[in-house]
Amino acid sequence: MPPETPPNAADRFDDDDYPAYTMGRAAEMIGATPGFLRAVGEARLITPLRSEGGHRRYSRYQLRIAARARELVDGGTPVDAACRIVILEDQLEEALRINEELRRPTADSGGAAAS
């Protein structure tokens, strides 16, 4: 049995959940400090994965979430409150998406009744 082929590195660039960014790079990308990323982690807004050496690694999805919290903090919202707001916004977006899916007609429920 041949060994499992590792994912193509190019595929990882398209994966929003791949933990590609170090703490320093992630902080730089969203215009924050490493301390801010630690704070949103402590508030459980995001949970970075850890490298084999124990270093935090962030995905693009996590950086978008952290950037939204940073916007709120920059506007004067305390970090804990900003994290709660972002969590609620994310939950609302998911609920709206599910609601829309459930409202869409399916092929099985087409308009014609069986004779």
Automatic annotation (TrEMBL):
It comes from the Bacteria. It holds the Pfam family MerR_1. InterPro entries: DNA-bd_dom_put_sf, MerR-type_HTH_dom. Residues 20-88 form the HTH merR-type domain. SUPFAM superfamilies: Putative DNA-binding domain. PROSITE patterns: HTH_MERR_2 (PS50937). This is MerR family transcriptional regulator. It comes from Streptomyces maoxianensis.
